[in-house]
Amino acid sequence: MKEIEWKMQGKIKRLTNYTFKFDDRVKEGWFSAVYFLKTRELADKYHKNNIVTMQFFQKSEAVLCGTDEVIALIHEFSDHPEALEIHSLKDGDKISPFETVLTITGPYQEFGYLEGMIDGILARRTSVATSVYNVKKAAELSGKQKPVIFMGDRDDHFMQQAGDGYAAYIGGSTAQATHAMNEWWGKEGMGTMPHALIQLFNGDIVAATRAYEETFPNDELIALVDYNNDVITDSLKVARAFGSKLKGVRVDTSRTLIDQYFLRNQETLGTFDPRGVNAELIFALRRALDEEGFHHVKIVVSGGFNESRIVEFEKQGVPVDMYGVGSSLLKIHIGFTGDLVMLNGEAQAKAGRRYRPNPRLEKVEF
Known about the structure:
Layout: E1 2-6, E2 18-22, H1 34-46, E3 52-57, E4 62-63, H2 67-77, E5 85-88, E6 94-95, E7 102-106, H3 108-111, H4 115-139, E8 148-150, H5 161-171, E9 175-176, H6 195-200, H7 205-215, E10 221-224, H8 231-242, E11 246-251, H9 260-264, H10 279-291, E12 298-302, H11 307-316, E13 322-325, E14 337-343, E15 346-347, E16 362-363
Helix pairs in contact: 2-4, 4-5, 4-11, 7-8, 8-10
């Protein structure tokens, strides 16, 4: 496994000191479709001096991500990267359907076998960045700045965390669940307490929160309050116990459960779905905290949130201060395509495809 410290210079100004971990077997073609490897061999045998241009695009409105990683990949595994001319948009650029985001010009055998990997990098990073961007935009429909915590550690293979965390950062999430998710942009993971901590204290939310506060006094104190399925009761318990030290409470009620608040106030039932983290529960929690003077305690919600659910909350004015989002952000829904479109400076492409120059592209200098 190679660690590549990539410092982009030249016309494209990017963040620096990313560390990309590439498997040495990329060079052998281990991760490339076999037909690309055969084409590399044939190009080297029959048309070694041909110069081709490959362009990459996708079909959605999106937030581009993965270009630095792709350029580092090419630079590392091309035998002669100086022989290649690369033009690219930047990570974080808003892109349109069919807009060219990257072009590579040079001998096919220098980079063509990486085509599938390039598509995959751009697809995953752009999908995550775009999903986070859309969620962040939804969370701020009310006009207030509301952080989105990227909690995707349990929803995919752990080796994806660094790249996914960076893509989430590009999309607008500045709080991430693990240290690995922050590796490429120089921060540390952010987290409070899991249900496991409360279980260790026999379900005693105050005792668990006190242990956390004593052990991590420099952290913002945010208590997880749904363990006993009695969000309001437990929120008030920790608020009374910790006063101004308590910065927030997190509600993560299972979608299969109805909180004890509704069982005590059954007259409220009948007009909405009372399961899980619902708007009525959060309204009631905010009222209960405010009535006892705990206006400073923020409310964090998590558990099954996605863009549409956040939009629904924001349109209703639900008093949420921060959203924790996981699995919905990791679905790969944006696919990239690489096409050869120029041969020795002349148009040459498969039917239905053509060279589409993009004046927004900037030359990459190695």
